[in-house]
Here is the input.
Amino acid sequence: MGSKKFGLALAIILAFSMSLSQVKAEDASTISQMGNNNLTKTVDVEKFKQDLEAAAQETPSVRAALKAKVKTLSTRYLLSPGDSISLSVYGESDFAQPDILVRPDGFATIEPFGEINVAGLSVDELTDTLKTKFKTYLLAPKVSVKVNTLHSAKIYVYGAVQRPGLYQQAATQTRLNANGNSAQIIPEMTVASIISNAGGIKLNADLRHIRVINNETNRDETVDLMKMVQHGDVNQDIYLRSGDSIYIPSLDTEAQISDDDFMLISSSSLAPVDFPVRVTGAVSKPGVYNVSSNSPRLNSALAFSQGYTPEAKKNLVAIQRLTNKGNVSTFYVNPNKNDVILRPNDLIVVPETSSSAASKSFGLIADILSPVARFGDGFNSWAEMFNPTRRYPRNLYDN
Here is the structure.
């Protein structure tokens, strides 16, 4: 009996062991299959980008950091014709070249390889290219490329800007210390700095849709400088490269811009220093005057015209302005109560009081009739010489 119990227990143990081994084998097979699937699975790059953007939108600080990173990567300095670079290989002085010129065709002579097209490459890209080439001669080359002097970058500006044309950002020498050591400083090449150099925008410029174009590099970006003016969003003020073109579109008229936005734009470094308005009517000195963009107010324009004449109607001034539909709009303001913001080419008319206007009307009629009256007086005088009785009763002379 005891032997039977022992045999039964042994059989149960053996069955459990076999079952456990089968489970482990199945788990191992499943894990192996999962690993193989993961190894052969293709990464969905577009989905990864979308997930990254979604994650960035959740945290403003992360989003700002990503924007700054993208801006930095997209604005790396690219070598261009006119640049001078130097090459050195650590521990290999024979390969050192202190002054390599990038020629107008974009090529540079780099020994011992000869002609290499370097225009359009960043310093890091050229360094990697040369490392690969030097592996023909050296086991583990340590290559260093530096930019000695930069070319004079050329930027084109056109559209709603004061002085459209070609602008160059040339390097300037800056003294660093009392010993006279100096270095070349390149002014920052951004959209706003180039526009300022071009005299600023016209005040009907559409700052929300500025385009930066370069056919050689296929660059075509839209910039909203209004965000920079309104909210200080400096990410809109992107960096430029030589050969870029800036196009600033125009609005139909300045009337499409609200007064608040117009004041922000006109007081910024993007706007011209002043703009013209015309003052006429009952003022001491009518004419065209340039009012300051920092304070384009009605009373400033009236002050230029040296004040009112005695006949002026001081509490009612007419302003004529071109609307966004191309029509002329006239509105009336009291300068003592509402010092309105003017727009370029506004016409300011100061009327005269009604009594003064009436008296001038009578004076005008009198001036028109005075030659007739003088002729009548002359005719009567001559008639009296030859016929003294024409104005008086005849019986006065009968006696």
Notes: The domain at 84-149 is CATH 3.30.1950.10 (wza like fold).
